[in-house]
Amino acid sequence: MTDQRTEKDLLGELAVPQDVYWGIHTQRAMNNFRISGRKVNPSLIRALAQVKMACCSANTETGYLSPEKSRMIHTACLEISKGLLANQFPVDALQGGAGTSTNMNLNEVIANRAIELLGGRKGDYSLVHPLEDVNLHQSTNDVYPTALKVAAIYRLRDLAQAIACLQGAFQEKEKEFGAIVKLGRTEMQEAVPITLGAEFSAFAEAFSRDRWRTFKCEERLRVVNLGGTAVGTGLAAPRNYIFSVNEKLRDVTGLGLSRGENILGETAHADSYVEVTAILKAHAVNLIKIANDLRLMNLLGEIRLPQLQAGSSIMPGKVNPVLAEAVIQTGIKVMANDSIVAETSARGTLQINEFLPLLADALLESLDLLININNLLTEHVRAIKADKEKCEEYFNASPMIITALLPVIGYEKATAFITEFASGNENNMRRFLEEKLGKESINKIFSPYRLTALGFKDKK
Q1: In sequence order, what DSSP letters do the residues of 129-192 get, joined into one string?
Q2: Which of 79, 77, 95, 78 is nearest to 41 (CA)?
Q3: Rounded-to-integer distance, Cα 410 and Cα 403, Å
Q4: Fewest beta carbons within 10 Å, which of 33, 71, 179, 378?
Q5: At 457, is the pLDDT very low, low, confident or very high (cuts 50, 70, 90)?
Q6: CB 354 within 8 A of CB 98
Q7: pTM across the whole model
Q8: CA angle in degrees (0–180, nearest 5) for 447-450-454
Q9: Which of the following CATH numbers is that of domain 142-388: 1.10.3730.10, 1.10.630.10, 1.20.200.10, 1.10.860.10?
Q10: Mind listing the pLDDT tens digit for each residue in 252-282?
Q11: How many CB atoms are closer than 10 A to CB 172?
């Protein structure tokens, strides 16, 4: 049996495994919230450690922590912020208490690691106390939302870079496929001619907008409520600490963070997260739409998506567009998470939002999912091949290509040509038009440049 130590809180005593860094508050949370089986997002844990580090520095500078305690707390925070002790954060992602269980988990792990660094035994809080020292002048209600913003900003930057790579992959294909003429399609029907390169340029442009929106929405998260303690008034924290702690946080994170002008408002409301997940939803919409377009183009044979795995347990040789399907499913999940963030933000009451754990889980999950799927899709797009012959086959057979001739022959004559084509034995529209107007003229009109130029040159 694992050795245990006994810890006390206001509810009484509880046994905690001797070898773990967490304490009684974490142990109670583990018992209380056996819900999803998912742990708190690691990026939030790392960001909370950075916030605790900033608080430690501010408390040391203002004389509330001894230099020796401060060094050990700082070292513990630094280790956690680098991903060490990751197995010491077992609390379920879905938890009551506005994030208190996660905050207490950090306080206890930091304290016990600092105790260990001082040569003491875990649980000897006379050396370093989770609340009196690590959580000094803090509340869950200011450190947790601040940490969430820090974590989200870091992940937004990662996402913006991932989208930039995806945009670049589509731009590479835009150049590679620039001379391949094909049919455009509207309402699932044949439409006017374009080039395959132009089609991929439209995909790249959509992701360009996503990249810019994602990069800019970091601004929505830069205002934090650190120093506001329980409800935003800074009650029980000294003023010089409140002014210092945000400067320390900027130093620790390297982010352009600022204390809110109205910290009560920052503490009570979570609408800034709703703005951010709306931007993530917009990106999810583009991912779903473009992934489905790639599936359709693959079905038509105009492109060949990379073959990744066998597609059927009963149909030999079948290969499915599985990554495109995964992209669509990821987008749907991100859209659902946007609804969760909006709902949890709306359900905060009076001075705090007690549903931040679910909000945090949804927001950070969406960021993680989007970063991963963008990276996977980037490599997938780079391996796409075009079937030039199939594109030309569709192009040459379609009566719709005559639309390109309207500036030359007019609508009525074009209609007459289509009627004649439909009633005859010819099944190649391009060949039919070459016979009517000459091969050289048709080649010029159907050149990739002419098909994608912005309008035609006015004769006047």
Answers
A1: -IIIIITTT--HHHHHHHHHHHHHHHHHHHHHHHHHHHHHHHHHHHHHTTT-EEEEEETTEEEE
A2: 95
A3: 9
A4: 179
A5: low
A6: yes
A7: 0.94
A8: 155
A9: 1.20.200.10
A10: 999 999 999 999 999 999 999 999 999 999 9
A11: 15
Domain ranges of the chain: 4-136, 142-388, 402-452
* Tokens 């089609």 belong to residue: 199
Tokens of 248: 């320390």
Which of 36, 66, 258, 312 is an active site residue? 312
Q: How far apart are CA 377 and CA 169, in angstroms?
A: 9
Average pLDDT over residues 334-343: 98
What CATH class does 4-136 carry? mainly alpha
Tracing tokens 């989208």 back to the chain, one arrives at 163
DSSP 8-state symbol, 220 = G
Structure tokens at 387: 């079937």
- How far is the C-alpha of 218 from the C-alpha of 215, rounded, in Å? 6
Could you give phi then psi for residue 158, rounded to 5 degrees?
-65, -40
Give yes or no for a contact between 123 and 16, defined as CB atoms under 8 angstroms apart.
Answer: yes
For tokens 């506001």, name the residue.
Answer: 228
- Residue written as tokens 């509880």? 14
H or E, element range at 12: strand 12-17
As a whole number of angstroms, the distance between CA 373 and CA 287 comes to: 9
β-pair partners for 223: 258
CB atoms within 10 A of CB 250: 14
Is the Cβ–Cβ distance between 302 and 394 less than 8 Å? yes
Cα 458 to Cα 337, 406, 407, 408, 450: the distances in Å are 50, 13, 9, 12, 13
Q: With contact defined as beta carbons under 8 Å apart, do 215 and 279 qualify?
A: no
Could you give the C-alpha distances from 267 to 225, 290, 347, in angstroms and in order? 6, 39, 14
Mean pLDDT of 314-321: 94
Distances (CA, A) of 121 to 12, 77, 78, 87, 90: 21, 18, 20, 19, 21
CATH topology of domain 402-452: Ribonucleotide Reductase Protein R1; domain 1 (1.10.40)
The residue with tokens 């050289």 is 440
Q: Which two three-digit tokens encode residue 20? A: 């773990």
- Based on C-alpha coordinates, what's the Rg of the chain? 30
Q: What is the pLDDT of residues 92-126, one digit of tens each?
A: 999 999 999 999 999 999 999 999 999 999 999 99
